[in-house]
Design goal:
Helices cover about 15% and strands about 35% of the residues. The chain is built from 2 helices and 6 strands, in the order ββαβββαβ.
């Protein structure tokens, strides 16, 4: 399983599934990270936390712990689900 945390700087991925439950999952969805949305990884802080991404046309900083809850497609998988 590949997560948003595993995507390299400058990489683009597509959200496959959100893990987590309750308020944590709802917070991630409220930030615009939902199934089939495309995410571009802009930067990673020097210690790896947070990760800065572009989603739905705006910049978002997301914690490593939250990024691990976002399962993304491998480049070989494509977008078909």
């Amino acid at each position: 399983m590949k997560t948003l945390r595993d995507v390299a700087i400058g990489g683009t991925c597509t959200v496959k599934k959100l893990h987590g439950e309750g308020a944590v999952k709802r917070r991630i969805m409220d930030m615009g990270v939902t199934k089939n949305v495309e995410i571009y990884v802009r930067k990673v802080a020097p210690l790896g936390d947070p990760i800065e991404v572009t989603v739905r046309g705006y910049e978002l900083s997301i914690r490593k712990a939250d990024a691990e809850m976002v399962e993304v497609y491998d480049e070989t998988e494509g977008k078909a689900a």
